[in-house]
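[#protein-structures] MJ: dropping Deacetylase sirtuin-type domain-containing protein here for a structure pass
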Amino acid sequence: MEEELVAQLGVSSRTERKAQERAQILQRENQRKTFKLVAKILKKSELERTAEDEAVLQLHQDTASELCKRQTRRNSLKRKQEEVTDSAEDLRDKVRDLAEAVRQAKHLVVYTGAGISTAASIPDYRGPEGVDPAAPGPRCEFIGPE
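AK: finished. structure tokens for Deacetylase sirtuin-type domain-containing protein:
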């Protein structure tokens, strides 16, 4: 009798756990569908949206807001990755300011990397099999007063 009770309790808790897992899976699937639907509507211009589209956006305001925030972040990151090209005059002013800062500095550390060299059309040292063993390694130079 006691064994039957233990077996029934084990089965029911397992059944409950499986039901909860299924419910979570269904909830995630519904959330994904909602995100896709709202994203599709948001891609349309406001003039192209139907009354049904507007109702969906009204019903899922939190999802629409989250998707807009994500798009804003994505656009911001893209803008940060764009290479900036200054006019000759701006570049001259910046170089003059940098030269003055270097002249006045007591100590100076210059840090460069692949982003700087490849932007200046200097090829990187990566080949089809990874880093080229013949590539020069990191360099550290002390340039003191002469």
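MJ: nice. Residues 2-81 form one domain.
AK: one more thing. The helical segments are 2-43, 51-59, 61-81, 88-104, 114-119.
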